[in-house]
Amino acid sequence: MDFTKFPNPQLKITSNLAAITAVGTSGFVSASLKATVVAKVMENAKKPTQYLMAKEIDSFTMAATGEKRVDLLTDYVYRMLMLRVSQRYSDIDLSITDLKFTCDTDKFIPFNRKVKQLDTEAFALFGASRLKHDILASYNDEVEILHHKEPDCRVWDEQTVPAGYIAIAYQWSGRLKIRIFAHDGTSITTDRNLTMVEEGHSLHGTLPIPFGIMANPATWFDPKPYKKLELVLTQGAAHPCQVCLEQVRPL
Asked: Are the beta carbons of 192 and 33 closer than 8 angstroms?
Protein backbone atom coordinates (compact mmCIF):
# COMPACT_ATOMS: atom_id res chain seq x y z
CA MET A 1 0.00 0.00 0.00
CA ASP A 2 1.41 3.38 -1.05
CA PHE A 3 0.48 5.90 1.64
CA THR A 4 1.75 8.80 -0.48
CA LYS A 5 -1.44 8.41 -2.52
CA PHE A 6 -3.54 9.65 0.40
CA PRO A 7 -3.53 13.09 2.10
CA ASN A 8 -4.40 11.89 5.62
CA PRO A 9 -3.99 8.15 6.30
CA GLN A 10 -5.14 7.08 9.77
CA LEU A 11 -5.49 3.90 11.78
CA LYS A 12 -8.59 3.73 13.96
CA ILE A 13 -8.88 1.08 16.68
CA THR A 14 -12.20 0.57 18.47
CA SER A 15 -12.13 -1.63 21.57
CA ASN A 16 -15.08 -3.29 23.27
CA LEU A 17 -14.10 -5.95 25.79
CA ALA A 18 -17.71 -6.25 26.92
CA ALA A 19 -18.61 -7.74 23.53
CA ILE A 20 -16.67 -10.85 24.60
CA THR A 21 -16.85 -10.73 28.39
CA ALA A 22 -17.02 -7.58 30.50
CA VAL A 23 -14.33 -6.26 32.83
CA GLY A 24 -15.05 -7.66 36.27
CA THR A 25 -14.73 -10.65 38.57
CA SER A 26 -15.20 -13.28 35.85
CA GLY A 27 -13.89 -11.19 32.95
CA PHE A 28 -10.89 -9.08 32.00
CA VAL A 29 -8.78 -7.14 34.47
CA SER A 30 -9.39 -3.39 34.28
CA ALA A 31 -6.92 -1.53 32.01
CA SER A 32 -5.47 -4.85 30.78
CA LEU A 33 -5.98 -4.23 27.05
CA LYS A 34 -2.80 -2.99 25.38
CA ALA A 35 -2.26 -2.46 21.66
CA THR A 36 0.99 -2.30 19.68
CA VAL A 37 1.01 -0.99 16.13
CA VAL A 38 3.90 -1.98 13.84
CA ALA A 39 4.41 -0.71 10.28
CA LYS A 40 6.36 -2.89 7.85
CA VAL A 41 7.97 -0.51 5.36
CA MET A 42 9.60 -1.44 2.04
CA GLU A 43 12.25 1.02 0.88
CA ASN A 44 12.92 1.54 -2.83
CA ALA A 45 10.16 -0.91 -3.70
CA LYS A 46 8.20 -0.91 -6.94
CA LYS A 47 5.21 1.39 -6.65
CA PRO A 48 2.05 -0.72 -6.14
CA THR A 49 -1.11 -0.18 -8.16
CA GLN A 50 -3.51 -1.90 -5.74
CA TYR A 51 -3.82 -3.11 -2.16
CA LEU A 52 -5.85 -5.53 -0.03
CA MET A 53 -8.56 -4.12 2.23
CA ALA A 54 -10.73 -5.94 4.78
CA LYS A 55 -14.21 -4.47 5.24
CA GLU A 56 -17.08 -5.47 7.50
CA ILE A 57 -20.11 -6.11 5.30
CA ASP A 58 -22.70 -6.86 7.98
CA SER A 59 -23.06 -7.29 11.73
CA PHE A 60 -26.22 -8.84 13.13
CA THR A 61 -27.72 -11.24 15.65
CA MET A 62 -28.91 -14.44 14.06
CA ALA A 63 -32.18 -16.24 14.71
CA ALA A 64 -32.26 -19.71 16.27
CA THR A 65 -33.40 -21.30 12.99
CA GLY A 66 -33.96 -20.43 9.34
CA GLU A 67 -31.88 -18.65 6.72
CA LYS A 68 -30.10 -15.31 6.91
CA ARG A 69 -29.21 -13.69 3.58
CA VAL A 70 -26.39 -11.14 3.38
CA ASP A 71 -25.87 -9.02 0.26
CA LEU A 72 -22.23 -8.90 -0.86
CA LEU A 73 -20.38 -6.32 -2.94
CA THR A 74 -19.91 -6.54 -6.70
CA ASP A 75 -17.19 -3.91 -7.11
CA TYR A 76 -13.74 -5.40 -6.42
CA VAL A 77 -12.05 -8.81 -6.61
CA TYR A 78 -12.37 -11.05 -3.51
CA ARG A 79 -9.36 -12.73 -1.93
CA MET A 80 -11.03 -13.93 1.27
CA LEU A 81 -14.32 -14.01 3.15
CA MET A 82 -14.35 -14.19 6.95
CA LEU A 83 -17.12 -14.89 9.46
CA ARG A 84 -16.98 -14.46 13.22
CA VAL A 85 -19.31 -15.85 15.88
CA SER A 86 -17.53 -15.41 19.21
CA GLN A 87 -20.00 -17.07 21.55
CA ARG A 88 -19.26 -19.15 24.64
CA TYR A 89 -20.53 -22.74 24.58
CA SER A 90 -21.09 -22.70 20.81
CA ASP A 91 -18.55 -23.34 18.07
CA ILE A 92 -19.12 -21.49 14.81
CA ASP A 93 -20.36 -24.67 13.10
CA LEU A 94 -23.10 -24.94 15.74
CA SER A 95 -24.14 -21.30 15.35
CA ILE A 96 -24.06 -21.53 11.53
CA THR A 97 -24.57 -25.03 10.16
CA ASP A 98 -24.44 -24.38 6.39
CA LEU A 99 -23.04 -21.63 4.20
CA LYS A 100 -23.91 -20.88 0.58
CA PHE A 101 -22.45 -18.29 -1.76
CA THR A 102 -24.79 -17.61 -4.68
CA CYS A 103 -24.46 -15.36 -7.74
CA ASP A 104 -27.48 -14.02 -9.65
CA THR A 105 -29.98 -16.23 -7.80
CA ASP A 106 -28.08 -19.51 -8.22
CA LYS A 107 -26.85 -18.85 -11.77
CA PHE A 108 -23.42 -19.66 -10.32
CA ILE A 109 -22.76 -21.11 -6.84
CA PRO A 110 -19.06 -20.86 -5.82
CA PHE A 111 -19.75 -23.02 -2.76
CA ASN A 112 -22.61 -24.59 -0.79
CA ARG A 113 -21.01 -26.33 2.16
CA LYS A 114 -21.31 -27.44 5.76
CA VAL A 115 -19.53 -24.95 8.02
CA LYS A 116 -17.85 -27.86 9.83
CA GLN A 117 -16.24 -28.85 6.51
CA LEU A 118 -15.11 -25.29 5.77
CA ASP A 119 -13.62 -25.01 9.27
CA THR A 120 -11.71 -28.28 8.82
CA GLU A 121 -10.27 -27.01 5.54
CA ALA A 122 -9.29 -23.69 7.14
CA PHE A 123 -7.46 -25.59 9.89
CA ALA A 124 -5.61 -27.66 7.30
CA LEU A 125 -4.61 -24.52 5.38
CA PHE A 126 -3.69 -22.11 8.18
CA GLY A 127 -2.81 -24.53 11.00
CA ALA A 128 -3.00 -23.92 14.74
CA SER A 129 -1.83 -20.84 16.61
CA ARG A 130 -0.09 -20.73 19.99
CA LEU A 131 -0.54 -17.89 22.49
CA LYS A 132 0.58 -17.19 26.05
CA HIS A 133 -2.40 -16.32 28.23
CA ASP A 134 -2.23 -15.13 31.86
CA ILE A 135 -5.34 -15.61 34.01
CA LEU A 136 -6.58 -15.13 37.58
CA ALA A 137 -8.73 -18.05 38.72
CA SER A 138 -9.59 -20.46 41.51
CA TYR A 139 -11.25 -23.87 41.91
CA ASN A 140 -14.06 -24.56 39.41
CA ASP A 141 -13.74 -21.19 37.65
CA GLU A 142 -14.61 -20.86 33.98
CA VAL A 143 -12.12 -18.81 32.00
CA GLU A 144 -12.55 -17.18 28.59
CA ILE A 145 -10.03 -18.65 26.15
CA LEU A 146 -9.11 -17.36 22.71
CA HIS A 147 -9.32 -20.47 20.51
CA HIS A 148 -12.79 -21.89 19.94
CA LYS A 149 -11.85 -25.06 18.06
CA GLU A 150 -9.71 -27.89 19.47
CA PRO A 151 -8.17 -25.76 22.24
CA ASP A 152 -5.27 -27.27 24.19
CA CYS A 153 -4.29 -25.31 27.31
CA ARG A 154 -1.28 -26.05 29.53
CA VAL A 155 -1.74 -24.20 32.81
CA TRP A 156 0.91 -23.42 35.46
CA ASP A 157 0.57 -21.95 38.94
CA GLU A 158 2.81 -18.87 39.23
CA GLN A 159 2.48 -18.76 43.02
CA THR A 160 4.91 -20.96 44.92
CA VAL A 161 3.47 -20.73 48.46
CA PRO A 162 1.50 -22.86 48.63
CA ALA A 163 1.97 -24.51 45.24
CA GLY A 164 -1.23 -25.91 43.76
CA TYR A 165 -2.13 -28.86 41.59
CA ILE A 166 -4.17 -27.97 38.52
CA ALA A 167 -6.66 -30.19 36.71
CA ILE A 168 -8.64 -29.23 33.61
CA ALA A 169 -12.31 -30.22 33.81
CA TYR A 170 -12.95 -29.26 30.18
CA GLN A 171 -11.70 -26.94 27.44
CA TRP A 172 -13.76 -26.23 24.34
CA SER A 173 -15.72 -23.55 22.50
CA GLY A 174 -14.07 -20.50 24.04
CA ARG A 175 -14.06 -21.70 27.65
CA LEU A 176 -11.76 -23.45 30.08
CA LYS A 177 -12.83 -24.89 33.46
CA ILE A 178 -10.04 -25.58 35.91
CA ARG A 179 -9.76 -27.13 39.35
CA ILE A 180 -6.91 -26.23 41.70
CA PHE A 181 -6.00 -28.39 44.69
CA ALA A 182 -3.62 -28.00 47.60
CA HIS A 183 -1.18 -30.78 48.55
CA ASP A 184 -3.67 -32.26 50.99
CA GLY A 185 -6.32 -32.53 48.26
CA THR A 186 -8.50 -29.63 49.42
CA SER A 187 -9.84 -27.16 46.88
CA ILE A 188 -8.12 -23.78 46.52
CA THR A 189 -10.99 -21.29 46.31
CA THR A 190 -8.87 -18.12 46.45
CA ASP A 191 -7.92 -16.63 43.08
CA ARG A 192 -4.40 -17.50 41.95
CA ASN A 193 -2.10 -16.00 39.33
CA LEU A 194 -1.97 -18.64 36.60
CA THR A 195 -0.22 -18.65 33.26
CA MET A 196 -0.79 -20.95 30.33
CA VAL A 197 0.15 -21.69 26.75
CA GLU A 198 -2.96 -22.02 24.65
CA GLU A 199 -3.12 -23.70 21.22
CA GLY A 200 -5.96 -24.23 18.78
CA HIS A 201 -7.72 -22.62 15.83
CA SER A 202 -10.85 -20.57 15.07
CA LEU A 203 -9.32 -17.68 17.00
CA HIS A 204 -12.12 -15.63 18.61
CA GLY A 205 -14.66 -17.82 16.79
CA THR A 206 -13.57 -16.90 13.25
CA LEU A 207 -13.86 -18.82 9.99
CA PRO A 208 -11.64 -17.74 7.05
CA ILE A 209 -12.70 -18.80 3.55
CA PRO A 210 -10.06 -17.98 0.89
CA PHE A 211 -10.89 -17.75 -2.81
CA GLY A 212 -8.38 -19.65 -4.92
CA ILE A 213 -4.71 -19.61 -3.93
CA MET A 214 -4.03 -16.74 -1.54
CA ALA A 215 -0.67 -15.87 -3.10
CA ASN A 216 -1.94 -16.03 -6.71
CA PRO A 217 -4.18 -13.09 -7.72
CA ALA A 218 -5.17 -14.84 -10.95
CA THR A 219 -7.17 -17.41 -8.94
CA TRP A 220 -9.20 -14.94 -6.84
CA PHE A 221 -12.92 -14.33 -7.38
CA ASP A 222 -14.05 -11.47 -9.64
CA PRO A 223 -17.63 -10.42 -8.77
CA LYS A 224 -18.07 -7.85 -11.54
CA PRO A 225 -19.74 -10.18 -14.08
CA TYR A 226 -22.67 -10.64 -11.67
CA LYS A 227 -25.47 -8.27 -10.65
CA LYS A 228 -26.39 -9.83 -7.29
CA LEU A 229 -24.23 -11.73 -4.81
CA GLU A 230 -25.57 -13.26 -1.62
CA LEU A 231 -24.21 -15.19 1.32
CA VAL A 232 -26.87 -17.53 2.73
CA LEU A 233 -26.36 -18.67 6.33
CA THR A 234 -28.35 -21.55 7.79
CA GLN A 235 -28.78 -20.45 11.39
CA GLY A 236 -28.42 -22.76 14.37
CA ALA A 237 -28.48 -20.36 17.31
CA ALA A 238 -29.31 -16.72 18.09
CA HIS A 239 -25.74 -15.46 18.35
CA PRO A 240 -24.04 -12.25 17.13
CA CYS A 241 -22.26 -12.61 13.80
CA GLN A 242 -19.98 -10.45 11.66
CA VAL A 243 -19.22 -10.91 7.95
CA CYS A 244 -16.06 -9.39 6.45
CA LEU A 245 -14.61 -9.30 2.93
CA GLU A 246 -10.97 -8.90 1.91
CA GLN A 247 -10.89 -7.24 -1.51
CA VAL A 248 -8.34 -5.89 -3.96
CA ARG A 249 -8.62 -2.09 -4.12
CA PRO A 250 -6.95 0.18 -6.67
CA LEU A 251 -4.71 3.00 -5.44
From this structure: no
Asked whether the predicted pLDDT for residue 227 surpasses 90, the reply is yes
The set of residues, in sequence order, having a beta carbon less than 8 Å from that of 232 and lying 6+ positions away, is 67, 68, 69, 70, 99, 100, 101, 102
Please report which confidence band the pLDDT of residue 26 belongs to, taking 50, 70 and 90 as the band edges.
Answer: low
Q: What is the mean pLDDT of residues 49-69?
A: 94
Q: From residue 139, how far is each of 1, 18, 81, 136, 164 by CA, in Å? A: 50, 24, 40, 11, 10
- pLDDT above 90: residue 3: no
Percent of the chain clearing pLDDT 90 (strictly above): 65
Given this structure, which CATH class describes domain 50-251? Answer: mainly beta
Closest C-alpha among 186, 185, 177, 126 to residue 153: 177
**What 3-state class would DSSP assign to 190?**
coil
Q: What is the DSSP letter of 127?
A: -
Looking at residue 1, its amino acid is M
CA distance readout (Å), 178 to 99, 126, 168: 35, 29, 5
Residues 209, 96: Cα–Cα separation, whole Å: 14
The CA-based dihedral angle spanning residues 125, 129, 171, 235, taken in that order and rounded to the nearest 10 degrees = -50
What are 120-137's pLDDT values in tens digits?
999 999 999 999 988 888
Contact between residue 72 and residue 57 where contact means Cβ atoms under 8 Å apart: yes
